[in-house]
Design the sequence.
């Protein structure tokens, strides 16, 4: 979590554009596979919050739940099938389906999960975090410091 875009090993910038502007348009992260390692990788956009980090982790867990057979080895095998295909079809239909289905599950279920965390504490007279008193303003999932900045975000940063 918190890797560089280059770690995704996407065959072209159009693949990155598809993930950023078609799938994860409203998110501060994108999740994909590394074809060389078969592992899930998460790239965060600039300004990603602890809630965004938890949401990305939630999606990764949703993928494990929906596709328990999708081990790193199996993902590498799927990605290996791509050598004989057109680059425009990367990643394999199975890997793309796993990303899209887990994202769909996340979009539908994460808001309830987050609300339960926040509201659970409010019912107890606290700021949030449920009975366990989770620190909701900070999540320590071991995310790296890398953040993706679009041209628009770079311009805003220069103006400040």
Sequence:
């Amino acid at each position: 979590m918190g890797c560089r875009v280059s770690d995704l090993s996407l065959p072209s910038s159009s693949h990155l554009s598809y993930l950023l502007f078609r799938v994860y348009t409203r998110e501060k992260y994108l999740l994909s596979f590394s074809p060389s390692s078969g592992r899930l990788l998460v790239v965060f956009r600039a300004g990603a919050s602890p809630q965004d980090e938890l949401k990305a982790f939630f999606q990764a867990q949703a993928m494990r739940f929906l596709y328990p057979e999708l081990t790193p080895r199996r993902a590498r095998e799927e990605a290996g099938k791509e050598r004989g295909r057109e680059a425009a079809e990367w990643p394999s239909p199975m890997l793309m389906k796993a990303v899209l289905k887990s994202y769909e599950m996340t979009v539908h279920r994460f808001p309830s999960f987050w609300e339960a965390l926040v509201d659970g504490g409010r019912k107890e007279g606290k700021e949030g975090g449920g009975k366990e008193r989770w620190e909701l303003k900070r999540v320590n999932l071991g995310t790296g410091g890398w953040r993706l900045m679009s041209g628009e975000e770079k311009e805003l940063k220069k103006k400040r």
